[in-house]
Design goal:
The structure holds two protein chains of two kinds. By secondary structure, chain A is mainly beta. In chain A, about 0% of the residues lie in helices and about 55% in strands. Chain A contains no helices and eleven strands. In chain A, strands 2, 4, 5, 9, 10 and 11 form a six-stranded mixed β-sheet that branches. A five-stranded antiparallel β-sheet of chain A has the order 1-3-8-7-6, with no helix packed on it. The N and C termini of chain A lie far apart (about 40 Å). Chain B is an all-beta fold. Chain B is about 0% helix and about 50% strand. Chain B contains no helices and eleven strands. Chain B is globular. The model of chain B has no long low-confidence stretch (mean pLDDT about 90). The chains are: A mainly beta, B mainly beta. At the A-B interface, strand 4, strand 5, strand 9 and strand 10 of A face strand 4, strand 5, strand 9 and strand 10 of B.
């Protein structure tokens, strides 16, 4: 079983703070996706990283794929209450099928 | 709106009843996936289709679960003789098999409650 472990499980911060969440595995993935999910809704795709060492930026969010393509991180600068949600990482190896981590629940307090 | 749609959004049923959920993928996507998500967990893979062919089923998918995609467009997921342990959010996603095929686009989900 290819497991993706996400940490921390829960994170509560004040508006304006910076944070980093992690996604780690012992397996190599062809690509890794980050999603954000709000209560009662489906996950929304944020980014895909494919190349080891790749860094992608999406406004205040910075995503990095590890050199060995086994881990990834998501850094948020100057968090806002609208960033609140469940952040999920998902890794792909076999055609089509993705394995999801259990997510980091982020709460940003005004 | 041309995203993935699911129907119904919520379903409450009594134990032992059968339920069926529908998913309409993004029109140009040829792959369709079903996942199950319980509170505090990430989505758990159930099955996926490429066009009308069901290419993989999770070992977690018991004989009470069946999925179809008869014309390679919409899909249905049926659960027979529901059990309380089937209570979960059932998510459908779609993707295109060319390019970054792991980029899956999710619908809003169907919340099933078995009483």
């Amino acid at each position: 079983t290819q497991l993706l472990e996400q940490s921390p499980q829960f994170l509560s911060i004040q508006e304006g703070e910076n944070l980093t969440v992690y996604c780690n595995s012992s397996s190599v993935f062809s690509s890794l996706q980050w999603y954000r999910q709000e209560p009662g809704e489906g996950p929304v795709l944020l980014v895909t990283v494919v190349t080891g060492g790749e860094v992608k930026k999406l406004k205040r969010l910075t995503f990095q794929f590890g050199d060995a393509r086994k881990d990834s991180s998501l850094h948020i600068t100057a968090a806002q209450p609208g960033d609140t949600g469940l952040y999920l990482c998902a890794g792909g190896r076999n055609a089509g099928k993705s394995t999801f981590g259990d997510g980091t629940t982020l709460t940003v307090k005004p | 709106d041309t995203g993935v749609s699911q129907d119904p959004r919520h379903k409450i049923t009594k134990r032992g009843q059968n339920v069926t959920f529908r998913c309409d993928p993004i029109s140009e996507h040829n792959r369709l996936y079903w996942y199950r998500q319980t509170l505090g967990q990430g989505p758990e893979f159930l099955t996926y289709f490429q066009n009308e062919a069901q290419l993989e089923k999770s070992r977690l998918l018991s004989d009470r679960f069946s999925a179809e995609r008869p014309k390679g467009s919409f899909s249905t997921l049926e659960i027979q003789r529901t059990e309380q342990g089937d209570s979960a959010m059932y998510l459908c996603a779609s993707s295109f098999s060319g390019g970054a095929s792991y980029e899956q686009y999710f619908g809003p989900g169907t919340r099933l409650t078995v009483t």
